[in-house]
Design brief:
alpha/beta; 7-stranded mixed beta barrel; binds zinc ion; 8-stranded mixed β-sheet; binds ligand BES; 11 helices; 385 residues
Length: 385
């Protein structure tokens, strides 16, 4: 039967809407693959899926391969006499085994926290937070420490990264086990950092409307996840929201120069976004904005958080969208763009309890749709007027 005019109209309009059921199917597919560690067969499968889905929606999709050195954790621990703590090597940490006294550093391991302490030849213990892991390691190395133990600022464990190759070995320990270390300064400890350096072969996926020459806006999110976590909220949620947004904007004239980029290697230190910025300086120079979606499928705070460029935030406010202005913050793929002078917006719903855990298995398509509506409002403000 020939579809009626109304059916055709209805179909063409529904194709423009963000479809939560489609987002749900994408999410189930990605989470079903398992942890999408950069360079793994699972990540390759995810990248193929994204490219295929983008092509099916009418886009030209290509891969941007890149590689970098990272360390793989082969098992780490910290022992004091009979006490043994599980430790996680920081990504980018050299490996090694050390027998040395502990030096508790009160604070987060900034230079000033070392006043009056002698850390030479010791294993220093600092708290997580405020400054990057790499900065803590640099300070510890400058003080002559042999290794650094970072105690999580929450009870559980956390997998951290130097975002590059660190100067001395470094591990994290859980907050619940690690807090006690601050009372054991001076005791001899044995730290095993099981880390081997390896080359990761990663790739971004870039989708653009076939006749688009250069992007006016990049909308992206990382599709890789940490080892051991299926990465539903972090960040299949952002990945899928970007994909469904792309489908819903396919063929829209005003959105023709929006490029959709799924970044790889984020969890090892923003490698995908950095490589994009480095590889395509002329594209980056011409950008009106970059939007990054990272953790948009679990309501871990009352309102959608949006941070970044003040002028863009004002623009978004004028659109009447509901969100919480979280100011400028780092920790995800908008950062290299912001550093290159691109106005950015970073969208997320906060850190949920399953962050970087094997239990990161669910994300809510309705929340993703809500996020996409705000992203779309921002795009319309930028590109339609
Ligand atoms: N998804 C997180 C970033 C994030 C944090 C988004 C809070 C929304 C709210 C990201 O994958 C991550 O874990 N980033 C690292 C740093 C990065 C350089 C590896 C982090 O925040 O520790
Ligand atoms: Zn993330």
């Amino acid at each position: 039967m020939k579809p009626s005019l109304w059916t055709v109209l209805l179909l063409s309009f529904s194709a423009l809407a963000f479809a939560p059921e489609r987002a749900k199917a994408d999410l189930d597919y990605l989470v079903g693959i398992g942890p999408r560690v950069a360079g793994s067969p699972a990540a390759a499968q995810a990248a193929e899926y994204l490219a295929a889905q983008a092509r099916a929606a009418g886009y030209a999709a290509e891969f941007q391969p890149f590689s970098y050195t990272r360390s793989r954790d082969t098992g780490s621990s910290l022992s004091l006499g009979p006490t043994r703590l599980e430790a996680l090597a920081l990504s980018g940490s050299p490996g090694g085994t050390f027998e040395a006294p502990l030096q508790a550093v009160p604070g987060i391991g900034a230079a000033s926290d070392y006043a009056g302490l002698d850390a030479r030849g010791k294993i220093v213990v600092v708290r997580r937070g405020v400054i990057p892991f790499l900065e803590k390691a640099r300070q510890a190395a400058a003080q002559g420490a042999v290794a650094v133990v970072v105690v999580n600022n929450e009870p559980g464990a956390v997998r951290g990264t130097y975002g590059g190759v660190g100067p001395i070995p470094g591990v994290t320990v859980s907050g619940s086990e690690g807090e006690a270390l601050f009372a054991r300064s001076g005791e001899r400890a044995r730290l095993v950092v099981g880390a081997v350096l390896e080359q990761a072969q990663a790739r971004n996926v870039i989708a653009r409307w076939p006749d688009s020459r250069a992007p006016s806006v990049v909308v992206g999110g990382h599709y890789d996840s940490v080892q051991g976590a299926p990465g539903a909220n972090d960040n299949a949620s952002g990945t899928v929201t970007v994909l469904e947004l792309a489908r819903s904007l396919a063929g829209e004239g005003w959105a023709k120069d929006v490029w959709y980029v799924w970044f790889d290697g984020e969890e090892d230190g923003l490698w995908g976004s950095r490589n994009f910025v480095q590889a395509f300086p002329e594209r980056v120079r011409g950008l009106k904005a970059m939007f990054n979606l990272d953790m948009v499928g679990v309501r871990a705070s009352p309102a959608l958080g949006v941070g970044g460029d003040p002028a863009l935030l004002r623009l978004l406010q004028q659109s009447g969208a509901q969100f919480n202005d979280i100011g400028g913050s780092g920790g995800s793929d908008h950062t290299p763009f912001a550093q290159a002078g691109v106005p950015v917006l970073f969208f997320h719903w906060g850190i949920d309890p399953n962050y970087h855990q094997p239990t990161d298995t669910t994300a809510d398509p309705a929340l993703m749709a809500e996020t996409a509506a705000v992203v779309r409002a921002a795009l319309e403000r930028i590109l339609k007027q």
